[in-house]
Amino acid sequence: MYTTTLTNQPLTIDFASGNPTLNGEPFDWDLVKLSDRTFHIIHQNRSCSAEVLELNAAEKTVSLKINGHIHLVQLKDRFDLLLEKMGMSNAASTKVNELKAPMPGLIVGISVQPGDVISKGDSLLILEAMKMENNLKAPGDGLVKTIRVGKGDRVEKGQVLVEFA
Fold this sequence. Notes:
By secondary structure, the protein is mainly beta. It has one helix and 18 strands.
């Protein structure tokens, strides 16, 4: 189960039953994958095109272009909701020592170098996985200590990519 807010409306999305539900109601749609990043969707006899512009698995954010309009979606799973309820939602992001690969892939771009001062959300690396480029961003403020990969390197899930001082 995930929660998000879209146009100031809170939404609950659940995939557990095999058929997606939106706010507890069945979500009946027809989804056709046109390419790695583009889809055609029919819902309630309305057609739309969707393109995944950016997917950040670490921050659970997706940037989508739907019928020409860009939407940034921030998802929260049950663990995020529990931490938020306990008042600990930002506790985990105060001090980060390293950035790990969220999935296996190929490093196709490096935006920083050792010694750079970075802020939360700054672009660090581009990881290509399943023919999609994923912009890996800084999980917090800090100083780049070492970069443990180079452009063209293949990485595994959980591999340390960048260390912070």
